[in-house]
Amino acid sequence: MSDDIENDEYDDEEIDLNALPDDELVEQIQNDLYDGLKEEVVEGTEILLQRKWKPAKILSEALVGGMTIVGIDFRDGILFVPEVLLSANAMKGGMEILKPLLSASDSVSAGKMVIGTVKGDIHDIGKNLVKMMMEGAGFEVIDLGINQSVDDYFAALEEHKPDILGMSALLTTTMPYMKVVIDEMVAKGIRDDYIVLVGGAPLNEEFGEAVGADGYCRDAASTVDIAKQHLALRKAG
Ligand code: B1M
Q1: How far apart are the CA of 135 and the centre of ligand 1, in A?
Q2: Share of residues in the chain with pLDDT > 70 (%)
């Protein structure tokens, strides 16, 4: 019995995040993200910022690093949807803190992008990261959200007249919808009016080519580079 009490006391013990050295704090943020503890993830993110960590480094090492572990355990059946939702919510808490810092840059727009997750798919963390990184690089980004149909994309292209259309898909069952959108653009004669970039964990270079996209983007940072390259090519005629 005394053992139980001791264990309970141990479980309830609050960790002073401020007292942890950087490497242990990053590990603790990843653990808190895994446990879906949004407040703690936010606090840890703020402490790293106070310690002069670059927002992009916090994002990739603490937040994306933590989400990668969640993804592995989700795949292996150790975590289930409700737990992953809590982790996703905790991740968004940290991202909210970093967002204005990543976005605080040039006032002149580097270009305009409309982005959305395709129909049937509700994953949006990666897309949101892409949005943040693109905004950080000076792009104007119109985020359509999740579950976007051909009609939704077309309405947004019409309204916002972007340089780039970005599509995200995280499921093998929803990624073929990207081809539906691109084929419809071809049918309407508007395909070449836009740079089409696609991304999402199950995609690859070959898939991007097969569906007729201009580029496949492995992650948020490479999306910025690929977008800039394509815009430069267009400008060069
Ligand atoms: Co889902 N899920 N999920 N899920 N989920 C995956 C994708 C999965 C791989 C998990 C697994 O089994 N290992 C698996 C898909 C398997 C497959 O298709 N082969 C899966 C499944 C099966 C499902 C459900 C079907 C589960 C169920 O209900 N039984 C269901 C589907 C719901 C639906 O969409 N209709 C489902 C639901 C969910 C939650 C709602 C619980 C939650 C989403 C919460 C949210 O997004 N708001 C969730 C999550 C969180 C995941 C995992 C664990 C993490 C995804 C993530 O956020 N990664 C994921 C496992 C994994 O990917 N390891 C999984 C972090 C993010 C930063 O990376 O999204 O890859 P990522 O984005 C990167 C790049 O891919 C790229 O840049 C981003 C940043 O670097 N990128 C782009 C992404 N989009 C881009 C667009 C661009 C450019 C780059 O445009 C130009």
Answers
A1: 22
A2: 90
Q: How far apart are CA 114 and CA 5, in angstroms?
A: 55
Bridge partners of residue 140, in order along the sequence: 112
Tokens 């670059």, residue located:
54
Atom of ligand 1 nearest to the CA of 113: 91
Amino acid at site 55: P
Residue 93 has pLDDT above 80, yes or no: yes
Closest CA to 181 of 149, 207, 205, 208: 149
| Ligand 1-lining residues (CB < 6 angstroms) | 64, 67, 70-71, 74-75, 81, 84-85, 88, 115, 120-127, 129-130, 166-168, 170-172, 197-202, 217, 219-220, 223
- Positive or negative, the Cα torsion across 167, 172, 177, 182? positive
**DSSP letter, residue 21:** -
3-state secondary structure of 151: helix
Burial class (CB in 10 A: 0-12, 13-18, 19+), 213: buried
Report the alpha-carbon distance of residue 88 to residue 86 in Å, rounded.
5
Phi, psi of 114 (to 5 degrees): -105, 130
Q: Is the pLDDT reported for residue 7 higher than 70?
A: no
